[in-house]
Design the sequence.
């Protein structure tokens, strides 16, 4: 079983990519909807939540863990690696590798939660590999609630996207990292506002490539199985939004941490 956790339901973009690329894989998903968003919380709190999330997945049969939350990937991955003795995958490094390969003018933009951008994790990781790349980060805190509300194509959403992306557009970036797993759901609108000449890097797509490579090297491990979906707070609205995203009916179970 592949375990995936996120602060909310944005990590379902990773699940959707897993289903697309690895249809036989067993998946257990946990979204911490009762405590989301993680992006405005302290590092210590995020570490505590991330450990609880990972342990919940392990208790329910996960053999590998994907930290689909960019904030947790940025701020809690060291803590997780020290405590969790299973293969761990996060969404930051795969996106960084793809962005570096993509850029031609060495100007990469990053959008994410306040916590992710403040951590400067993408800047640090990119600079470690190529110090000549300019990285421009921009927090977009309204994107997550807009996505969770299902306001993907509202005129207000498009205006907010345009406003957030204006500073990045003025910097002449040629690559933009979608530094939150909610953001791919806004990909058409983001692409429209930032320009077709800018390559969007979807961390969900990139981390699934890493999982595929891992599975190819560990064919003795059986990752086949059922799919189970858990949330720490379940509402009818969330069920409807999530089912619409994945294109299939989802029944979320209530998780007790």
Sequence:
């Amino acid at each position: 079983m592949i375990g995936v956790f996120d602060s909310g339901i944005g990590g379902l973009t990773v699940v959707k990519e897993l289903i697309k690329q690895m249809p036989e894989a067993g998946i257990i998903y946990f979204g911490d909807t009762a405590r989301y968003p993680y992006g405005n919380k302290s590092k210590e709190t995020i570490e505590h939540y991330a450990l609880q999330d990972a342990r919940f997945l392990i208790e329910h049969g996960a053999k590998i863990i994907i930290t689909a939350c960019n904030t947790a990937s940025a701020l809690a991955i060291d803590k997780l690696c020290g405590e969790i003795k299973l293969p761990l995958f996060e969404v930051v490094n795969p996106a960084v590798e793809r962005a570096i390969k993509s850029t031609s003018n060495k100007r990469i933009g990053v959008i994410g939660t306040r916590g992710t951008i403040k951590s400067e994790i993408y800047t640090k990781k990119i600079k470690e590999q190529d110090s000549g790349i300019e990285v421009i980060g921009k927090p977009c805190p309204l994107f997550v609630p807009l996505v969770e509300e299902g306001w993907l194509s509202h005129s207000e959403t498009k205006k907010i996207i345009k406003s957030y992306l204006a500073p990045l557009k003025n910097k002449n970036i040629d690559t933009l990292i979608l530094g939150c797993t909610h953001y791919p759901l806004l990909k058409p609108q983001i692409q429209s506002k930032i320009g077709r000449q800018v390559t969007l890097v979807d961390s969900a797509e990139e981390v699934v490539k890493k999982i595929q490579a891992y599975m190819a090297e560990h064919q003795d491990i059986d990752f086949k199985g059922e799919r189970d979906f858990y949330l720490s707070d379940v509402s009818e609205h969330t069920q409807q939004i999530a089912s619409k995203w994945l294109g299939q009916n989802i029944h979320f179970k209530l998780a007790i941490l």
User: Anything to note?
Assistant: The chain has two domains: 2-90+205-254, 92-203.
